[in-house]
Amino acid sequence: MAAVAEYFDVDKSQFWQQIIPSHQPAILRQAVKHWPSVVAAGKSDLLLQEYFAGLESRKEVNTILAHPDTKGRLTYNDTLTGFNFERQKAPVTAVLNELRRIAGKKDALHIAVQSARTDVCLPEFSNQNVMPLLDTDVVPRIWAGNKIVVPAHFDDADNLACVVAGKRRFTLFPPDQVSNLYIGPLDFTPAGAPVSLVDITAPDMTKFPRFEQALEQAQIAELEPGDVLFIPALWWHHVESLSAVNVLINYWWGGSLADDTNKASPFDSLLHTLLTIKQLPEHQRKHWQALFGHFVFHDASDPCSHLPKGCGSVQGELTEPRKEKIVDWLQSQIKHL
């Protein structure tokens, strides 16, 4: 697998003008090494816990517990009717304390805090640990745990993943590798995003033969505390936490994950399309494919170049009143599915 491109001493201008437009993953080495949280983690896990205790609101966050037999891989059960972990709630520092207590013990539970908003559980974190590459209104989230494996999945937003404590390995696949990743049920997922059924750490090439093609396109990132990984929206990423105590802070922007006022996602359209088009005869599906290619993906030309400006057509720039009418109409149509 190819290594993800590395950058050093990246400033905001380079990040937005060079790295983001490349639409490729990038490692920003030691971009947050100055954070007080990273400095505390570099001294000891105890000092990291004490640092977070000084920031914590004591609000409980979503916490995952998995049996030792899972080897920390958070996924489905064998029949895809449920998952191989349980969900509980606990304060962040209580989780960190438990991670320190069970570190090095055989048959210890696998524990993970996932995607907890720091403005809720660690309200002073952003003031003390400033992300210089993004605007201050982008809300960070904390991920903490021991040796956890998150199967390959994608997010609909751009992402900066900042390692505070422990080591992490990311394996990334371009969006077009979806057919080679053997995705599980779209409407029943471990954490909201579709996930690959392939165990990347020990792939069964007999069961998943096309995965070999995905590996040929994969990129790998090995991260230390202070390192930051840029993950472009829709890139599949498999995440391995490699230490007894791992903490990561991430920032999403530019997608539904980052927008608390509008949770609508293009993924919703995919599900709707599966309900309305998938069962049609092949010749009709091909016709709809042509319509989507023209009106949505602009395969050959601008679909509204021949229309008067300001006409408010759905394939052009919509006026707000027209948009509201279309949303109301779509809602009424969904009721008939």
TrEMBL record:
Gene3D superfamilies: Jelly Rolls. Residues 111-268 form the JmjC domain. It holds the Pfam family Cupin_8. This is Cupin-like domain-containing protein. The lineage of its organism: Bacteria, Pseudomonadati, Pseudomonadota, Gammaproteobacteria, Chromatiales.
